[in-house]
C-alpha cells in the first residue's frame, strides 16, 4: 500500500511538472476573443482589429473582436476581468481602462494592476484638439480668448466618461479656466458625425483617429497634447507651445489578459505578440497613422503599467476629476 501510494505521488508529481509544457503546447485549441471596450472606429478598436489579423496567423486559430461598450471603457474591461483566465479572452488595454478608471470611479469593479497581466504594449499616441472646419478661431490662444469672453458659447464632444477624450477635455477646461458645454457621445464615430456636420464645435480625440479627417480638410487641428509635435502633424503645435502649460496627455495601448492566466499561456501569447509588433507592415501602418511604437520587454512593460496605474488615479483625485 505504501509503495502504491509512493508511485501515485511520483506519477502525480511528474504530471504536475509536465502540465505547464503540455498546456502551452495545447494552447490555443479554439478561437480567441479580444474584447474592445469601446465602439468601432476609435483607437482601441483600430488597434484591436489590426493586431487580431496578425495574431490569428501567429496562433493558428481565429481571433475575434468583440466590442463591449458602456461607461467609457468600464463595462468591456469589467467583462474581461471576470472572464475565465485561460487565454481565450483578452482585452485591449490602455491609459483609459488600465490607469484612468482607477481614479475616475470609486468602485470600477476591477483593479487594473492586480486583475490583469500585460501581454504586450504595442504603441502610443497623443490627443488632438480639433474643431469644425468653419469655426472662426484657428489657434489655441484665439479659442481660449473667445471662450473666456463668451462662457458657455462653445461646446465640446467627449467620447465617453473616463475615456482619454473626456479627460483631455476636462484638463483643457480646468487648466484654461474656461466654460464650455460638454456633449457626451458613446464613441468617436458618433462625435465625428456631428463635428463634420458642423453641429459640434470641438472634440479632443486621439491624433491617430483625427489625422485622416484633418488631412481631408473635413475638420481642423488646433493643438496636440504630446510632449513634442506629432510627426504626422508637424505643423500643429503642442498645447504647451501654444501657451497652455500642463496639458500633456499621451495614451498607450496594448493587449492584456486576466491575471490568473497560466504562465505558459501568457508566455505563448507574449512570444506571438512580439512577432506581431515586429511585423514591418503593421509597424508601417501604425507609424504612418501617427502612432509611436513601444518596444518594451515583459518586465519593463509590467513596471510601466503599474507606474501608470498609480500615477493617474492620484492625479485625477488631486485635480478633482471624477466620472461619477
CATH architectural group of the largest domain: 3-Layer(aba) Sandwich
What is the quaternary state of this protein? single chain
User: What's the average pLDDT?
Assistant: 90
Shape: globular
| Terminal residue distance | 64 Å
CATH homologous superfamily heading of the largest domain: Bordetella uptake gene, domain 1
Strand fraction band?
A: 15-25%
Helical content stands at 40-55%
Low-pLDDT residue intervals, each spanning 5 or more residues:
5-18
Continuous helix count: 12
Number of DSSP E strands = 10
Overall tally of structural domains: 2
What is the highest CATH level, the class of the largest domain? Alpha Beta
| N to C succession of SSEs | HEHEHEHHEHEHEHEHEEHHEH
Structural class: alpha/beta
Q: What Rg is obtained from the alpha carbons, in whole angstroms?
A: 22 Å
For the largest beta-sheet, the strand count, sense and barrel status come to: 10 strands, mixed
CATH topology of the largest domain: D-Maltodextrin-Binding Protein, domain 2
Summarize the SSE layout with pairings.
Blueprint: H1 2-26, E1 32-36, H2 43-59, E2 63-67, H3 74-82, E3 89-94, H4 95-104, H5 112-115, E4 116-132, H6 140-149, E5 155-158, H7 164-176, E6 181-184, H8 188-196, E7 202-206, H9 207-215, E8 219-224, E9 250-258, H10 263-278, H11 280-288, E10 292-293, H12 298-319
Parallel strand pairs: 1-2, 1-3, 5-6, 5-7
Antiparallel strand pairs: 3-9, 4-7, 4-8, 4-9, 4-10
Helix pairs in contact: 1-10, 2-10, 4-12
Q: What is this structure, in a nutshell?
A:
With 324 residues, this protein is of the alpha/beta class. Helix content is 47%, strand content 19%.
Amino acid at each position: 500500500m505504501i509503495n502504491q501510494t509512493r508511485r501515485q505521488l511520483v506519477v502525480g508529481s511528474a504530471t504536475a511538472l509536465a502540465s505547464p509544457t503540455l498546456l502551452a503546447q495545447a494552447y490555443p485549441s479554439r478561437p480567441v476573443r479580444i474584447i474592445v471596450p469601446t465602439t468601432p472606429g476609435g483607437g482601441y478598436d483600430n488597434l484591436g482589429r489590426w493586431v487580431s489579423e496578425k495574431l490569428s496567423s501567429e496562433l493558428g486559430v481565429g481571433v475575434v473582436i468583440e466590442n463591449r461598450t458602456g461607461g467609457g471603457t468600464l463595462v468591456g474591461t469589467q467583462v474581461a476581468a471576470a472572464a475565465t483566465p485561460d487565454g481565450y479572452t483578452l482585452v485591449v488595454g490602455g491609459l483609459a481602462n488600465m490607469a484612468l478608471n482607477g481614479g475616475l470611479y470609486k468602485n470600477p469593479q476591477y483593479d487594473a494592476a492586480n486583475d490583469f497581466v500585460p501581454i504586450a504594449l504595442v504603441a502610443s499616441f497623443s490627443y488632438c484638439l480639433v474643431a469644425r472646419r468653419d469655426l472662426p478661431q484657428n489657434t489655441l490662444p484665439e479659442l481660449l480668448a473667445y471662450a473666456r469672453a463668451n462662457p458657455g458659447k462653445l461646446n465640446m464632444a467627449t467620447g465617453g466618461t473616463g475615456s482619454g477624450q473626456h479627460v483631455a477635455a476636462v484638463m483643457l477646461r480646468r487648466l484654461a479656466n474656461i466654460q464650455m458645454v460638454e456633449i457626451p457621445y458613446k464613441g468617436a464615430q458618433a462625435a465625428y458625425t456631428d463635428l463634420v456636420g458642423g453641429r459640434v464645435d470641438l472634440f479632443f480625440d486621439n491624433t491617430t483617429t483625427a489625422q485622416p479627417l484633418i488631412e481631408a480638410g473635413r475638420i481642423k487641428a488646433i493643438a496636440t497634447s504630446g510632449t513634442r509635435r506629432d510627426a504626422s502633424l508637424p505643423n500643429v503645435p503642442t498645447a504647451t507651445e501654444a501657451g497652455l502649460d500642463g496639458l500633456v496627455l499621451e495614451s498607450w495601448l496594448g493587449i492584456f489578459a486576466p491575471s490568473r492566466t497560466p504562465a505558459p499561456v501568457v508566455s505563448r501569447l507574449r512570444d506571438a505578440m512580439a512577432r506581431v509588433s515586429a511585423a514591418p507592415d503593421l509597424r508601417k501602418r501604425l507609424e504612418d497613422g501617427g502612432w509611436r511604437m513601444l518596444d518594451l520587454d515583459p518586465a519593463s512593460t509590467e513596471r510601466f503599467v503599474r507606474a501608470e496605474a498609480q500615477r493617474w488615479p492620484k492625479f485625477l483625485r488631486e485635480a478633482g476629476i471624477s466620472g461619477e
